[in-house]
Write a structure and sequence with these properties.
single chain, mainly beta, Deoxyuridine 5'-Triphosphate Nucleotidohydrolase, Chain A, two-stranded antiparallel ribbon, 4 helices, globular, dCTP deaminase activity
């Protein structure tokens, strides 16, 4: 696998092999080996729930554990120390079947104690939609986040061959395909959870 350079990123964008919309300032957003992405205006945060834990086998709707926030222009989302929130990139991304991508936080955000993903920084070939950001504040001070602010970067890597069943393939359970806002975990749709009555593992 090889990481695309800025000149290859520009070429792939020009040829429509990679789609990033809206890419409003390519000269500033395209970095030597990545593209800076901005944060959108919708967030999700956990409510205070009187439950001992989040259990994917619980019949409760996981959506009820979270509340949504929509920011008006110029309004800040404040993430406090120890808090976790979901957001999405301002841009939507579409990948071909022979590229994977990774979302990495920007150094300027990391130096404030803000991480942009917990574990889901990997983007499958064939993915299309806005990218969910799993934001945590591991610092000591609250931090303000503004819509349109560059908070992360996307890195593209070539594969040894195109995927036989890329993300979104009819035979693949692509739960987050086409997402355009922060989406609560769909872990209940995982086959080992969904089909728990037929398995001895759970």
């Amino acid at each position: 696998m090889a990481i695309l350079s800025d000149q290859d990123i520009i070429k792939y964008l020009d040829e429509g092999k990679i789609i990033i919309e809206p890419l409003e300032d390519p000269a500033r957003q395209i970095q030597p080996s990545s593209v800076d992405l901005r944060i959108g205006n919708e967030f999700k945060g956990f409510r205070i729930i009187r439950k001992p834990c989040i259990d994917p086998l619980d019949k409760s709707d996981l959506e009820s554990y979270m509340e949504s926030f929509h920011l008006d222009k110029g309004e800040a989302f404040i993430i406090h120390p120890g808090e976790f929130a979901l957001a999405t990139t301002y841009e939507a991304v579409k990948l071909p079947d022979n590229l994977v991508a990774r979302v990495e936080g920007r150094s300027s955000m990391g130096r404030l104690g803000i991480t942009m993903h917990v574990t889901a920084g990997y983007i499958d070939p064939g993915f299309e939609g806005k990218i969910t950001l799993e934001i945590s504040n591991i610092g000591k001070m609250p931090v303000a986040l503004y819509t349109g602010q560059r908070v992360c970067q996307i890195v593209f890597e070539t594969m040894t061959s195109p995927s036989l069943r890329p993300y979104g393939h009819p035979e693949r359970d692509s739960k987050y395909m086409g997402q355009d806002k922060p989406v609560t975990s769909k872990i209940k749709q995982d086959y080992e959870i969904r089909d728990r009555k037929q398995t001895k593992l759970l």
